[in-house]
Design brief:
This protein has helices spanning 33-61, 74-83, 85-95, 117-135, 151-159, 171-174, 198-205, 220-229, 256-270, 278-284, 307-310, 313-323, 326-332, 335-344, 347-351, 358-366, 373-427, 431-453, and strands at residues 3-10, 68-72, 100-102, 141-143, 164-168, 182-185, 192-196, 236-242, 274-275, 287-291. The chain has a domain at 3-305: 7-stranded beta/alpha barrel, CATH 3.20.110.20. It contains 18 helices and 10 strands. The chain is of the alpha/beta class.
């Protein structure tokens, strides 16, 4: 069996408004509603709606032989519900075909997996419930934010009940090995790993419209020829990319939709390859070996590491200060605070603070709504400062309420004890009465004696 696994990431952050120092403590609303709505509707019209229509037509045209997978962040699903419900409905229609798999990830598209299991599990469970609610599927495969993975993260994912996970086929991890096999986690082999073929994926996602690229223009015949050139014993080609590749990163005018429309037919005519979802790959292929990833990797930049989000002191400071509030956030019990905490965790906010340069820097600046990384840092820290004030106030209010409640309980107990002591005192005989009672029998006796002697 030789198969192609197409996986698409769908995500849009809740963008923050310009939040200044003098807003701290005075204004607790952080979001740029105009940008969030306008950007989402623009991307919906350029990418999500036409791309979903194309995928649906391909699935129907080839009677389900063409199959794909999506991971849609919880943040994105919220925005679809608010600003573009027709997009959510189009994804539901894809789910209804039975040939589209929806994967689980963190609800907030966060880096919570780097801070331990508790918050990570909470967000994964929240996201899985949304997938079940919107698409009727219980996710069996996990995709972490930005394909972040390590041995320890994989072990946590296994404990959550997932059978497979996606990550990057990073050269510094694989060495001479090919990403075109099924691997497993080095700690718990029960977790199967699908590794991205970054060269073939990036040929579509990044190089497709680059006229200086030596392979430009990319045709489906050329791409399928490259697939056929892979050794016969290499079983799976994992093509992982942002869904915004279609129409947003690569505009319609580049021919990207035409390329995708023609690709399945060319594959079926000119190659032995089929198409499979991640679950099908995990079920049908045999694991060839474990892959050892002691330090976290991702699918970002040339290094395939975490430096896009945690590569400088600003990013580390913001990241650590945010997660230091975790215990207080949930102790507050305030739904609005908990929701803001989720929005603050979105990885994009840390990405905006990146100071990386050269070719990677160009990619970072393309997605950055701020003029500089320092503007992004200042804006985020202003918001985080106000958020911390809210959290501390909520927790202090809870403490005050607890003190009042405990004081009331103690006062009521004291009153009950006083009443019981009074009741006991009323029932207890008076010592003076005891002395009187003790003399009466002797008096009667004396009187009887006198009568007897008279």
């Amino acid at each position: 069996m030789r198969t192609i696994c197409f996986y698409f990431q769908v995500h849009q952050p809740f963008r923050f408004r310009r939040y200044r120092f003098f807003d701290i403590g005075n204004d607790h609303y952080y979001y740029d509603d105009y940008s969030n709505e306008s950007i989402l509707q623009k991307v919906a019209q350029k990418c999500y709606l036409p791309a979903n229509s194309l995928m649906l037509n391909l699935i129907r045209k080839y009677d389900g032989r063409f199959r794909i997978a999506f991971s849609i962040s919880g943040i994105a699903m919220e925005q679809f519900r608010l600003y573009a419900p027709e997009v959510l409905e189009s994804f539901r229609e894809l789910a209804g075909t039975g040939h589209v798999e929806f994967l689980s990830e963190t609800y907030a598209h966060s880096l919570s997996s780097l801070k331990g299991k508790e918050e990570f599990s909470r967000q994964v469970n929240q996201h899985s419930k949304l997938i079940k609610e919107y698409f009727g599927q219980e996710p069996q495969v996990f995709r972490n934010t930005e394909l972040v993975y390590s041995n320890e993260i994989g072990a946590m994912v296994t404990e959550m009940g997932f059978k497979a996970m996606l990550t990057e086929g990073a050269k510094h991890v694989l060495g001479w090995k090919s990403p075109n096999y099924l691997y497993c986690n080095a700690i718990n082999p029960a977790l199967k790993l699908l590794l991205k073929n970054f060269k073939l994926s990036d040929d579509i996602a990044f190089r497709f419209s680059n006229q200086s690229w030596s392979e430009y223009p990319l045709t489906t015949e050329k791409f399928v020829e490259w697939l056929n050139q892979t050794p016969d014993n290499e079983e799976v080609i994992n093509l992982f990319m942002d869904y915004e590749t279609f129409g947003e990163h690569q505009w319609k005018e580049t021919g990207i939709f035409d390329f995708m429309e023609a690709l399945p037919g060319t594959v079926f005519r000119n190659s032995p390859f089929t198409f499979s979802t991640p679950s099908e790959v995990a079920e049908n292929l045999q694991v060839v070996s474990a892959v050892d990833v002691p330090h976290p990797i991702s699918w970002a930049d040339e290094e395939r590491d975490l430096t896009a989000w945690l590569g400088n002191e600003m990013q580390h400071e913001a990241f650590e200060k945010l997660y230091a509030l975790t215990e207080k956030v949930y102790k507050s019990g305030d739904d609005a605070i908990i929701q803001d905490f989720a929005y603050l965790q979105v990885s994009d906010h840390f990405y905006y603070m990146s100071t990386k340069f050269f070719s990677d820097g160009e990619v970072h600046s393309y997605f950055n709504p701020y003029h500089t990384p320092y503007d992004a840092f200042i804006n985020y820290m202003n918001i985080l400062s106000d958020f911390e004030i809210q959290v501390n106030a909520a927790v202090q209010a809870d403490v005050d309420v607890d003190i009042v409640r405990l004081s009331k309980i103690i006062r009521e107990k004291d009153e009950q004890l006083a009443k019981l002591e009074k009741r006991l005192a009323d029932k207890r005989p008076d010592p003076a009465n005891k002395r009187v009672a003790s003399r009466k029998p002797s008096t009667k006796k004396n009187r009887g004696t006198k009568k007897g002697r008279s």
